[in-house]
Amino acid sequence: MGQIVILNGVSLTAEAVVAIARDGARVGLEERAREALTATRQYIEEHWLGVDAPLMYAFNTGVGALKSQRIAPGDIEAFQTNLVRSHSAGAGDAMPTEVVRAMMALRVNAFASNHSGVRVEILDRLIAMLNHGITPVVAAKGSVGASGDLAPLALMSGAMMGLPHSRVRFDGQEMPAARAFERCDLPPTIDVQAKDATALINGATASLAYAVLAAFDARSLLTDAMISAAMTIEALRGEVSSFDARVMRARPHAGQARTAFALRQMLSGSQRCSEPARQVRLTGAQGPAGQRHSPPLAPRIQDAYSLRCIPQVHGPVLDALDYVDAIVATEINSATDNPLIFPEEEGYAIVSGGHFHGQYIAQAMDFLALAVTDLSAICDRRSARLIDPSCNFELPGNLIAQRPGINSGFAVAQSMGTGLVLENMGLCSPASATSLPAKGNTEDHISNSCFAARRTRTIVDNARSVIAVETLLAAQALDLCERDLADFPLGIGTSASWRALRETVPAMLGDDRWMHDDIAQVTALLADGTLRKRVGVSCGPLWPARDSW
Is the model's pTM score more than 0.90? Predict the structure, then answer.
């Protein structure tokens, strides 16, 4: 049996959300949470759903501008069902399956905190869908992230209910939701009663699903960028003194110090980044290859910013990730619908609030978008240096191994990276500062969190391809250097990543190959963590506890 994630509303982690979303981890509900939910719901049905109950928002009233409109007990189920229908106003392509699965798990976890008042049957239905692999088809666009992600969550809820228009992905096919339930021996439909639908669609949970996955991937991406940077430094026989721990202590930002430590770990044992290695002529340079320059070249002293300032540029990304992860961790275990329910000495209190508003997520995702965009930009600048004969220290132009002119080498691979960086630059404009009133001015300030998070996921995906290009180019450069610099070993981490890459993607030492496939293969190696794992085995953790760096 695979991993089982038990939800209780207080202890879910981003790693567990990713396991549910991507790896198909099974989901369960903690028994204490189940008991608490059952007791709360029993109280609600006994005390709050009668004809003489006071007006309570979303229980026996309409929503939004209709908040003062009383709903009779006999109409509550129809009201809740119609709420899902009326709010299913999404547009655009469908969300990826992993995002929808994350959204479903996060909604269950929010309910498990026992502040929403939903029936436990709602949680069980969503859990059954996750465990059977029934994933609602949810349009990605249309949420303003104010009263939560209303449209995406309504589309998810309609599928959960088995409504006729709802579609799901199941067993590799798209089909009506009810049919998928029947194939799993589950009831084809389920009703929604007081507070069920209002709780289901209230909260910035689609935004959070995108954010969890984007932040998780961005942290892995930063490690990949550290690896590609180390490979480029060695390919260019760079100067590593700027990563000295004493230099870092003179301006003691944590992220900067940690990235410098990671570089020192990977470059440990390197003789390639030394003055003797720099004096060796490379094949293709003027004069006999493999011999020392005479007269000697002037000392390198220091490198261009894209090499020398890696700690100062990658470091802020690490600090940004720490901030973003803290926001995401809090959101994962928060109750985010309205109103919320709290136990009192005699019964429960119901309190209206604004936890559905997605501004925390929106601002965190804007911050992450800026950080990852800049990370992709510096990686691309290193790629540009690798192919440019004016600044790549005797490497062949475009990293062409033979027959320049007949072969074009890696120029367009590098240009592709620049194109993705330009796209990221256009995408990273702040979404959280863009607000227009919605729903008859009831939502007079919106967060735009769903777009912010969805956009940031795109930026992260683009950045992975940019880093893949740097990795591919740096590996090619190391291969071209190897015949002349074999006596100058690489650092332990750089060597491990280079050799791991070459197990899948051979060097281009003859004619040009189909570049798309090489880039795709390297991107896949980054996505599955192959290079990170091999570097970790060779030189230990790159991000250890504080005392180490």
Answer: yes
